[in-house]
């Protein structure tokens, strides 16, 4: 699977991911200064009139979000961020996790995003220029996040690979385990597509075999998982999930499948291990 951020920006999976990232960040901020590491940061900000127009996934995602009525609080929080980037109305610009996080940082917080693709890393640096405590760096995010986690206390680590490589599931699980070994107080949020349950179950088993604690799995299935060539759902798996994360994930996934899903759509939030 080739999951380029720019091609899929603003789709339903982004809504699930980013609404939960916002909640995790706010929860972490209530406990003190926060350092965020982002393994696959991407460009940071997306013009939906570019690559995303080819896929038209944003039309079925953020465009419908912004016209929806009676949005629950955690969905409303994401909609407010999107609206702030589109002061003229409409939905031309969509924030990736770097800009979304940078906008929410306080003076005592920081964000560091990693990106391997040089042209995309340049866009990342440009998109974060307005925030001195948010930086983009070139590097293998799997390795860099583990290295960086050794030097801070209780980081929030986002793992969101493009799934271009067959070992992305394995490296995501291994990186989460290594981060928590480096700092048992770290919170790690991992985004994955849901295409077939065998692959996803193998990913969860790796986390369990690593002995990770408080693993929360939030699934949003917009369609039955009967075509492994399509992303019919997505999941956010949170290691060291804080109190309240289960209710937050249920609110986010529940709204997404109800508002955007087809017949047979369902949300599931459960604990692994």
Structure write-up:
With 273 residues, this protein is of the alpha/beta class. Helix content is 42%, strand content 19%. It has helices at 5-8, 12-29, 51-55, 62-67, 73-84, 97-104, 118-127, 141-149, 168-182, 197-209, 245-260, and strands at 35-38, 45-47, 93-95, 110-115, 134-138, 156-159, 187-194, 216-221, 233-239, 266-271. The chain starts with a helix and ends with a strand. The mean pLDDT is 93.
Q: List the quaternary state of the chains.
A: single chain
Count, helices: 11
> What is the general shape?
globular
Helix content: 40-55%
Radius of gyration: 17 Å
Please provide the count of β strands: 10
The residue-averaged pLDDT reads 93
Give the class from helix and strand content and strand pairing: alpha/beta
Q: Kindly estimate the percentage of residues that lie in beta strands according to DSSP.
A: 15-25%
Task: Please trace the helix and strand order, writing H or E for each element.
Answer: HHEEHHHEHEHEHEHEHEEHE
| Distance between the ends | 27 Å
Instruction: Walk across the major sheet and give the strand order.
Output: 5-4-1-6-7-9-8-10
For the sheet with most strands, the description reads: 8 strands, mixed
The stretches of 5 or more residues where confidence is low (pLDDT under 50) are none
């Amino acid at each position: 699977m080739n999951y380029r951020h720019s091609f899929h920006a603003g789709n339903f999976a982004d809504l699930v991911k980013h609404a939960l990232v916002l909640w995790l960040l706010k929860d972490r901020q209530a406990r003190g200064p926060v350092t965020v590491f982002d393994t696959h940061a991407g460009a940071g900000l997306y013009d939906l009139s570019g690559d995303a127009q080819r896929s038209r996934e944003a039309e079925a995602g953020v465009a419908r979000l912004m016209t929806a009525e009676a949005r629950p609080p955690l969905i409303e929080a994401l909609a407010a961020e999107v609206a702030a980037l589109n002061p003229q109305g409409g939905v031309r610009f969509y924030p990736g996790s770097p800009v979304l996080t940078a906008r929410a940082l306080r003076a005592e917080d920081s964000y560091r995003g990693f990106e391997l693709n040089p042209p995309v890393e340049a866009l990342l640096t440009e998109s974060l220029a307005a925030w001195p405590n948010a930086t983009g760096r070139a590097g293998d995010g799997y390795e860099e996040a583990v290295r960086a986690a050794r030097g801070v206390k209780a980081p929030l680590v986002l793992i969101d690979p493009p799934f271009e490589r067959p070992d992305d599931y394995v490296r995501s699980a291994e990186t989460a385990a290594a981060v928590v070994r480096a700092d048992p107080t770290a919170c790690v949020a991992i985004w994955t597509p849901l295409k077939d349950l065998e692959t996803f179950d193998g990913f969860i088993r790796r986390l369990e075999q690593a002995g990770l604690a408080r693993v929360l799995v939030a699934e949003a299935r917009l369609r039955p998982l009967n075509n492994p060539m399509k992303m019919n759902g997505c999941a956010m798996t949170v290691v060291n999930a804080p109190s309240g994360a289960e209710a937050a994930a249920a609110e986010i996934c529940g709204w997404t499948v109800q508002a955007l899903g087809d017949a047979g759509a369902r949300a599931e939030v459960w604990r692994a291990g």
